[in-house]
Write a structure and sequence with these properties.
single chain, about 375 residues, alpha/beta, five-stranded parallel sheet, about 45% helix, globular
Amino acid sequence: MKLHLKILGLSLIVLSTYSAHAVDGVTDTEIIIGSNLVLSGPTQDLGQGFKNGYDLVINKVNAAGGIHGRKIKLIVKDDKYEPIVSNANTKTLITADKVFSLFGYVGTPTTQASVPLIVENKVPLLGMFTGAEIFRKPVNPLLFHVRASYYQETEKLVKHFTEDLKLKKIAVFMQQDAYGAAGRDGVVAALESRGLKLAAGGAYERNTIKIEAGYESIKQAAPEAVILVGAYKACAAFIKKAKADGLKIRIANISFVGTRSLVAEMGADGEGTYISQVMPNPWKSSFKVAQDYRKNMDASGNKNYDYTSIEGYVSALVLIEALQAAGKDLTRESFQNALRKLNSDIGGVKINFAGSQFGQNQVYLTKVKGKEVIDVEKMD
C-alpha cells in the first residue's frame, strides 16, 4: 500500500511538473508559430511579399541560435485570399499543428474568418496585414496590431484632398467584401466629419479584375477624386481605364494595394497616383530599420523592395522582441504581457503598445513619380 502511494505520489509530481511547462508550440528547442497568408492566385504578391520580409528576420534569429535557446519553427499556410480556406488553415494550425501563436495574416476577409477560432482557443495573433476597424472596435485582447488602421489612412487621404486640393466630390471604388467595406466606411467617416457625403461608389469581386460595372458607376457620377480600396491588379485596371477614357480625376489608394505590384501593373498610367502607407519608404528611407531591411534583402538575393515586405520585416522584429522579453519560461500569457509592455524604437519606427493592442499609428503620404514612389507632404 505504501509502495503504491509512493508511486502515485511520484506520478502526480511528474504530471504536475509536465502540466506547469506544457505549452502548445513550445519545446526545449522550438517555438512553433503559424502563418496564414495568400501565396497563390491574383493577389499572391501581397502574401509573398509579407513572408519575404518576416523570413529575413526569423532566418537570421534562428541562425544565431534562436530565442532563449529555442529556434522558431514557422508553419506557413496558403489561404488563396479566400475566407473559407483561411478558416480551415487556422483550424489546422491551432488544433493539429498546436502552434504557440499565430503571426502574419494577410487580408481582412481571411482574417475575419479566422477570428472565431482564435477567440475560442485563446491563441494570440500578431502582425496582421490589415487595418480594418472590425478587428479594433471592440478591442480584441488576442489581436495585436503593428500598423495604423484604414480609418487613419483614409482620414489622411480625405484631409489632403479637401485641404490641399479643395476637393469635395470624393468617390470610393472598393473590393466587394469586408476589406472594401472597411475602407469605404473610413472614407465616409472622414467625409462626414467635414460635412460632406460620398459622391459615388463602385465595386468589384475579390480575386478578379471585373471592374467595368463599378468603374461606370463612378464615371457617371463625375467625382473630383476617387479612393481605391482594392488589390493591385483590379486597382491598376481601374486607373488604366480612367486614363484611357481621359477622366480628369485624382486617384489615391490605401496601403494594402501592394505598391510595387501596383506600380508595375500601371506602367506610365500610374503617374501622379497617391498611396497612403503605414511603413517607411523601403527604397529611400534613412531610418536604420529601412537600411537594415535593404541590406538583408540584398543579402538574400532579392532586391524587390516593397512596403509589403518591409511591413513583414518590422512585424517580425516586434515578434522577436516580445518573445525575448517574455523570458525562458514562455507562455501565451507572458508573451501577451510582453507585447502590451513593449515600448521600443525599432530603427526609427516607434512601437509602443502602452498596455493596449495597438503598436503604432503612423501614416505616410506617397506619390508615384515615373517608376518611383516618393514621400510627399501634401497633394498638388
